[in-house]
Amino acid sequence: MADVGALLERVQVARDKGALARLISLVERSLADESLGEVGFDGPAPEGDGYAVAGFTGAPGAGKSTLVDRMIGAIRAREEEVAVLAVDPSSPFSGGAILGDRIRMQSHTSDPGVYIRSLATRGHLGGLSIAVPEVVRLLQRVGYPWILVETVGVGQVEVEVVGEADITVVVLNPGWGDSVQASKAGLMEAADVFVINKADRPGLRETKRDLETMLDLGGSPNPPPIIETVATSGDGVARLLDTLVGMRSEMAASGELARRRGERRVRELERLVQLGWGRVLARVPIATSIRERVGAGTVTPRAGARELLREMLLVGAESEG
Ligand SMILES: Nc1nc2c(ncn2[C@@H]2O[C@H](COP(=O)(O)OP(=O)(O)O)[C@@H](O)[C@H]2O)c(=O)[nH]1
Ligand SMILES: [Mg+2]
Predict the structure, then answer these.
(1) Which of 28, 42, 99, 231 could form a disulfide with 63 if both were Cys (CB 3.0 to 4.6 A apart)?
(2) Which atom of ligand 1 lies nearest, measured to the CA of 235?
(3) What residues are paired with 58 via a beta bridge?
């Protein structure tokens, strides 16, 4: 077992990125082992409004990585530190998309105040969403005031990943289809801020109007702000950061931050329990036969579930003992 305390200190005192990378690998590996083993910085998450997790989501090509790269610059201009997690729920490997993102953010890799890391799924139940909250907690524990999470994949899991952020930024582009796509994916409800990136492209006004109409129809008394950006030139990025700073302090003052973080921790608990159950299930010898009997109709699903749960409790109790 690596000396977690020593690694933590190297990160906290010297911003040793190698040590941080090792800690993140420890998180991932400890989740992959049977016991959901402790890594050492588990425990109560530090509270307060001194940090924020901002999630950037939206269709591939919307300009999220370019925008995040600009946000890094804007945050550094304030002399604050920032960590970026590029997460790819759709792929078990760190594939081309993430590689491209890393290249886009390369200008910051030699800056000690910036840490960039990609996380891919490990293919197990819940995959990536299990590691993300722990890695976020680690980053916050070692003192990054900004943690930006960019989702690379598309689809349902993207919406799950959205749930890992304090503030969710949905990135759209001018042109029909984007906002429709966002509403399909359930991203409209999740958005705290809308960014219309590529504001240098035609169709900006129409997209903005569509979005406003959609938000009006939603009838929220407090609709999310819409911010126009050109990530390639940096236009609008300072305003976006100002908006996030303002939201962070409002949400801290109103108790909304604490509420969201509490909900996230409970969801994390539930996912970990599910993960544990899944592993117990894999070791239940008669699981296959129960499935077969239920499939054949000789045992009702309910009776089968009852039997399976009983067996799981037995196997679980054995492995505890
Ligand atoms: N014209 C224009 N192109 C942009 C803008 N932002 C990003 N792009 C380009 O859009 C492409 C996709 O950007 P990327 O950041 O990789 O998108 P992601 O898949 O959402 O991370 C790249 O070629 C960017 O240079 C913008 O504001 N205006
Ligand atoms: Mg990207």
Answers:
(1) 231
(2) 27
(3) 171
Name the amino acid, one letter, at 282.
A
Our separate counts of H helices and E strands in the chain read: 13, 7
The answer for residues whose C-beta is within 8 angstroms of residue 238's C-beta and 6 or more apart is 74
AA identity, residue 86: A
Whose structure tokens read 């509490």? 262
- The answer to whether 63 and 178 have CB atoms below 8 angstroms apart is no
Please identify which residue in the block is written with the tokens 């045992």: 299
Q: How far is the CA of 62 from the centre of ligand 2 (A)?
A: 8
pTM over 0.90: no
User: Ligand 1 atom 10: the closest Cα is on which residue?
Assistant: 63
Question: What's the gap in Å between 97 CA and the centre of ligand 2?
Answer: 7
- CATH number of the domain where residue 157 is located: 3.40.50.300
Residues spanned by the domain of 80:
43-253
**Domain assignment present for 212:** yes
Q: Which of 183, 133, 139 is nearest to 163 (CA)?
A: 133
197 within ligand 1 shell (Cβ under 6 A): yes
CB contact at 8 A, 173 and 201: yes
Indicate if the alpha-carbon torsion angle 30, 137, 53, 8 is positive or negative. Answer: negative
**Atom 3 of ligand 1: nearest residue by CA position:** 198
Residue 135 lies in a domain: yes
